[in-house]
Amino acid sequence: SRLISLKQSSAMGLIANEYCSENFITRNRKECVFWAKTAAYAGNIGSARLYGSLLYQGMGVDENKAEGAAWVVYSMNKGNQSAIQAVKANISKYSPDEIAEINKRAAEIDAQITASK
Predict the structure, then answer these.
(1) How far is CA 21 from CA 53, 74, 95, in A?
(2) Of 24, 61, 22, which is closest to residue 40 (Cα–Cα)?
(3) CA–CA separation, 50 vs 55, rounded Å?
(4) What is the dihedral of CA 90, 80, 34, 98, to 10 degrees?
(5) pLDDT(66) > 70
(6) What are the tens digits of pLDDT across the range 92-112?
(7) By three-state DSSP, how is residue 78 classified?
(8) Is-contact 24 59, C-beta < 8 A?
(9) Listed residue (58, 75, 63, 59) closest to 19, CA to CA
(10) Cα 69 from Cα 11, distance rounded (Å)
(11) Three-state DSSP class for 98?
């Protein structure tokens, strides 16, 4: 709770990466999602990409492709290389209207995170 109250996003990101490592299938998915989401909302861009991927794929959470894509785009906009590659690989799956909605939501995420700091 101290990490959360102090908004230590880099430490939360490390914890998320540990719980969401390559052994995700055998690990506690609830902890993975909790730490990825918590670190993402604290502004950790790597965790934002991770949380977006979890949402997009429905891993440990209800699948929500649009919200997941928005988190990945938010992370891309902040310079995360993995997110940049993911967006480039998947952009053709979306219509211009869907892209506009995803970008709008990514901007809302950015504003929410900025306001909470």
Answers:
(1) 13, 22, 32
(2) 61
(3) 9
(4) -30
(5) yes
(6) 999 999 999 999 999 999 999
(7) coil
(8) yes
(9) 59
(10) 24
(11) helix
For residues 68 and 53, is the Cβ–Cβ distance under 8 A?
Answer: yes
Cα–Cα distance list, 72 to 5, 7, 40, 43, 66 (Å):
25, 21, 10, 13, 10
Torsion over CA: 13, 16, 18, 20 (sign): negative
> By the 8 A CB rule, do 65 and 58 touch?
no
**Amino acid, res. 73:** V
Total-model pTM:
0.84
Determine the distance from the C-alpha atom of residue 101 to the mean position of all C-alpha atoms in its chain, rounded to a whole number. Answer: 17
Structure confidence by residue, pLDDT tens digits, 67-89: 999 999 999 999 999 999 999 99
Q: Name every residue whose Cβ is closer than 8 Å to that of residue 30 and which is 6 or more positions away in sequence.
A: 60
Q: Which helix (H) or strand (E) holds 88?
A: helix 81-90
